[in-house]
Amino acid sequence: MKGMVSVLFTCVLLCCVYHVNSVYQGESLGVTLTKIFDKLDTKISQTTSVNRGNEETITTLLGHYMDLVRDYADIMKSVEQIKYENKELKEDMAETKETLQKLQSEFDEIKEENLSYKEQITNVENRISTLNETMEADANERSLYMNQTLSEIKEEIAENQITLVNSVNSTTSMEQTVSYMDDVVMSRLNETILSFVEEMVASHMNESIAGKNTSLSTDCPDEFVKLYNSCYYFSTDTKSQPDAIKKCVSLSANLLSISSEHENCLLKNHLRHMNTGKYYWTSLIKHNSAWKWGAGGALAGMTTNFTDWHNGHPSRSSNYVCMMTDYAQYNWYSYPCSNTQNYICKI
Question: Could you tell me which CATH number the domain at 214-346 has?
Fold first, then answer.
């Protein structure tokens, strides 16, 4: 519209100009108008061509604009997708952080448990070291005991040699004498070695199962000691045998009865460790020349299937038995039941 107005305005202006010029040059109005219209047609053609170019440009620009709108829409969709993924990523990071905190807490707990296990291992190693030292000292003591026993055997051999030499008459040959001496020596030596081995086995079983520390025996009453499968009470006071029986009953136990040589070795070994040097009542009593266990328990009224008498015992005048903690023997002694001794109760 503005272009057409401009063309008309231009035409009017040209008319005026040409009219003046024609008047000045002496041309007629018709010639002037013809020239003006020719100029006008040329201008209109040029303007129309320009307008067509502008329309094409506008159409191209509109196409680019629509492309930009579509690209913008795609970009906005991508932005929304990125925002959504960023939100999920933040949630994943929060969960990962929480998981890391839990793992750190579990690691701290495992670290504390590891320290506790290390302390327990150290305690066990210390106990093993102490046990090894104790076993070494025990071996030294037993070695000393064996040496002493061998010395006694040698002295006894010397005495037997003198006795045999004095008792050999003219009809006894030297070979018979030597043979008899060999039998005596081997018998005594075998008895000593057997006793030594039994006490060694009993000692190791005692220490590995019960240990010297009785506080570890949680399945026995207070003040009782666990030795293998039974609990024992070693008294610190003294009583007669009947009163000792009553005391054991008050402790829900029975005065000691010994079921086997193995149990006897366990008790002897424990008494040696106690090293009290005292006598302890057992329930063994004599009935019609037979030694039987009394005072209740599984063996009550049963004849003992083994003995461990000290030299010179049992005494003919005593029907009751106690055990002695003598370092070299730990054998059985018989004493009157009215005597007051320490006592051993058994569950």
Answer: 3.10.100.10
